[in-house]
Amino acid sequence: MLLGDEFFLAAHDDLGGKLRLHRVNLGLGLAGALLGELVLTERIAVKRGHLWVSDTRPPEDVLSHSVLSHLMNEDDVSSVTPWLRYLAADAYDQVGTRLVHSGHAHRRQARRLLRTVTVFDLVDPNTAAGPVARLSSRLHARHPLSLLDATLIGLMAATGLEKEVTRDAPVPAHRLIPDLVGRLPPPLRELVAATETAVGDAVLSHRR
């Protein structure tokens, strides 16, 4: 699975399917993951708070292709933060739809606070639990993480979701996350930091 799909699954309870994050945090985390997919495939570069397209070849994934096209068409916007906010607006629907197409989710309409919203029900509880179970196991055992997994846990920490993999961990395991994030390649490390800042700004704005 791609980074955005893994984050989507981690953000849902694998039994009841309820969200583990506030919708704003979820959107920003998914936005960071979508940009992260393009960093991982070397389509974009990130440095000093800015991003740019470094490879215009269309990615195989349709959603990644769409995001890359947006970046190319709006090349006058180079700051990471506006892109996180822009992509966050419909990242939940976009990634959820990708999971529907891959057979991992069903889409339905539900009533929430006097309005109708789109909800994605995950098909297989084992698949839904996969990202959190894998990260938890590897973190507890101090096994090396793949670049995708290290980025995923960084985005989880940026949005407040890391507790799902450290809930039953010994104290030293909690301290591994900052080190894992710190050892990410600079573009991914910057992307995680930008996502964390955007989440913090959103929380402050909501409290005003």
TrEMBL record:
Signal sequence bounds = none
Residue stretches spanning the membrane: none
Which Pfam families is this protein grouped with? GPP34
What are its GO cellular component terms? cytoplasm; endomembrane system
Keywords for this protein: Golgi apparatus, Lipid-binding, Membrane
Q: Name one GO molecular function term.
A: phosphatidylinositol-4-phosphate binding
User: Where is it localised?
Assistant: Golgi apparatus membrane
Broad class of where this protein is predominantly found: Golgi
Q: Which domain of life is it from?
A: Bacteria
Q: Know the name of this protein?
A: Golgi phosphoprotein 3 GPP34
**What's its membrane topology?**
Peripheral membrane protein
UniProt xrefs under InterPro entries: GPP34-like, GPP34-like_sf
